[in-house]
Specification:
Protein name: Metal-dependent carboxypeptidase
Number of strands: 3
Helix content: 55-70%
Radius of gyration: 22 Å
CATH class of the largest domain: Mainly Alpha
Strand content: under 5%
CATH architecture of the largest domain: Orthogonal Bundle
CATH topology of the largest domain: Neurolysin, domain 3
InterPro entries: Peptidase_M32_Taq
Largest sheet: 3 strands, mixed
Family: Belongs to the peptidase M32 family.
Strand order of the largest sheet: 1-3-2
Keywords: Carboxypeptidase, Hydrolase, Metal-binding, Metalloprotease, Protease, Zinc
Number of helices: 20
Shape: globular
Structural class: mainly alpha
Number of domains: 2
Cofactor: Zn(2+)
């Protein structure tokens, strides 16, 4: 075989083993017996040890020197393998294995502490996670430690640039939120019981509306909704409250956006570095455009209103317009995943600032809860009363995912640009959404973005799809139009 073929064969097995590790993580959060945590941690550590050895195999350096790319896809693959090799060889095998073991254990400790409302039970473990992530960042950083971790999720992004973008977004978002909250329009939450089984059936209907291929996926329950896997095995989860159905519905649509991205990637890229989403920012653009620009639009909520009545009976609302306003209700809530579109990015900005300070050593874990609660009161005007409303609500830090949070807001920015381009190219999207059919939007996204997987760097992926460089203006314009109309501003 040629050097490229040898490298591709090696990479194929590495990607397959990575998928197996992902399945172990899915099982841990969905089906694993509670008492299996210690055993699973050892299993995760063992497979990470094998993966680290493969990613740092000395033969990779030789293959990269000798390999010749025949086309753009092969050239991009070589670039991504080189990037992975250079990064992995700077991280000691001991550290990679220790992180895998600890974060596997930490997830279960976090979940129990969250259920018990006991922050003190989680803090020692989180302190150790932060210590190891600081060590990892120091191994791979050429400057800013946080940038080194951010690069894992959004290659090429810099915290300084994201911070500047968030600063440009913050004032317009707060101003629009204040105008909305001062409006006479005030949608009231639904006051009835929504049985779990009926919610699950409706969640499946919504996932189908956005093109989820059930022959290559499944829907399960977890403490924190997530999407896992890709290709022919792209799974999603949700969570259900019988008093609040929208958390389940829109979490499902959100995760469906992730999964349909993975399902649409060119099968020729399977088991290569091109065979999955190029970055978390781009991934979030797919989940957020499905959840918000499409799923919370008036045409789709009009269809959903009818499905809700069929599933749960009379909702006590004055028609589809009132339902649309309720779905897009703006309020000072505690939970990020259930937040409205105006407050959502402010939730992310809070987390972004706190985790930057944690990694830089400006904030210690022992002081995190107080720092969170103080900042939350300042940004949202309400006081956190229990840890599950505050810093224990998200799973990310227990898993060591520092640098992940800002990609949510970046995904919103990307989604705003994609929505602008898509609606210009496909003016009939709303007609399908009014029938619970997002296939026109899915077709455009598949053709212009999803099929390419990791073929291009993140911003180039968005620019190729849109025909223009992404920035925050399309998102802010969309939010202004939408909420000014709903709240009659």
């Amino acid at each position: 075989m040629s050097a490229f073929e040898e490298l591709a064969a090696h990479q194929r097995e590495t990607e397959a083993l990575g998928n197996i590790s992902g399945l172990l993580g899915w099982d841990q959060e969905v089906m694993m017996p509670r008492g299996a945590g210690d055993q699973r941690a050892e299993e995760m550590a063992a497979i990470e040890s094998v993966l680290h050895a493969r990613r740092t195999d000395p033969r990779i350096e030789d293959w990269l020197v000798r390999a010749e790319a025949k086309d753009a896809a092969q050239a991009r693959m070589l670039d991504l393998v080189a990037r992975s090799y250079n990064r992995s060889t700077r991280i000691p095998a001991r550290l990679a294995t220790e992180l895998a073991r600890l974060t596997s254990l930490s997830q279960g400790i976090w979940a129990q502490a969250r259920a018990d409302e006991d922050a003190s039970a989680f803090l020692p473990t989180l302190d150790e996670v932060v210590r190891l992530k600081r060590e990892e960042a120091a191994c791979v950083s050429d400057g800013d430690l946080y940038d080194a971790l951010l690069d894992d999720y959004e290659p090429g992004a810099k915290a300084k640039e994201l911070g500047a973008m968030f600063d440009r977004m913050r004032a317009p978002l707060v101003a629009l939120r204040d105008r909305v909250l001062g409006s006479e329009v005030s949608p009231q939450p639904l006051d009835m019981v929504f049985p779990e089984n009926a919610q699950l059936r409706l969640a499946r209907i919504c996932a189908s509306a956005f093109g989820y291929d059930w022959t290559r996926g499944r829907l399960d329950m977890s403490v924190h909704p997530f999407s896992s896997g890709g290709g022919d095995d792209a799974r999603i989860t949700t969570r259900i409250s019988e008093s609040e159905p929208f958390g389940n519905i829109y979490s499902t649509i959100h995760e469906t956006g992730h999964a349909t991205y993975e399902q649409a990637i060119d099968p020729a890229y399977r088991f290569t570095p091109l065979g999955h989403g190029v970055s978390m920012g781009v991934h979030e653009s797919q989940s957020r455009i499905c959840e918000n620009q499409l799923g919370r639009s008036a045409p789709f909520t009009g269809w959903l209103y009818t499905r809700m009545i069929e599933a749960f009976g009379d909702l006590g609302l004055d028609g589809p317009e009132a339902f649309h306003a309720l779905v897009n209700r703006v309020e000072m809530g505690f939970i990020r995943t259930e937040s409205d579109e105006l407050n959502y990015n402010l939730h992310i900005m809070l987390r972004f600032d706190l985790e930057r300070d944690l990694i830089a050593g400006k904030l210690e874990v022992a002081d995190l809860e107080e720092a969170w609660n103080t900042r939350f009161k300042h940004d949202f005007g309400v006081s956190v009363t229990k840890p599950s409303q505050g810093f224990l609500q998200d799973v990310h830090w227990s898993l060591g995912l520092f640098g992940y949070f800002p990609t949510y807001a970046l995904g919103n920015v990307y989604a705003g640009s994609l929505d602008k381009a898509m609606r210009k190219a496909e003016p009939d999207i709303d007609a399908g959404l009014a029938k619970g059919d997002a296939s026109v939007a899915k077709g455009w996204l598949d053709q212009n973005l999803r099929q390419f997987g990791g073929l291009r760097p993140p911003r180039d992926t968005i620019e190729h799809a849109c025909g223009f460089a992404p920035d925050e203006k399309p998102l802010l314009d969309y939010l202004s139009r939408k909420f000014e109309a709903i709240y009659r501003l």
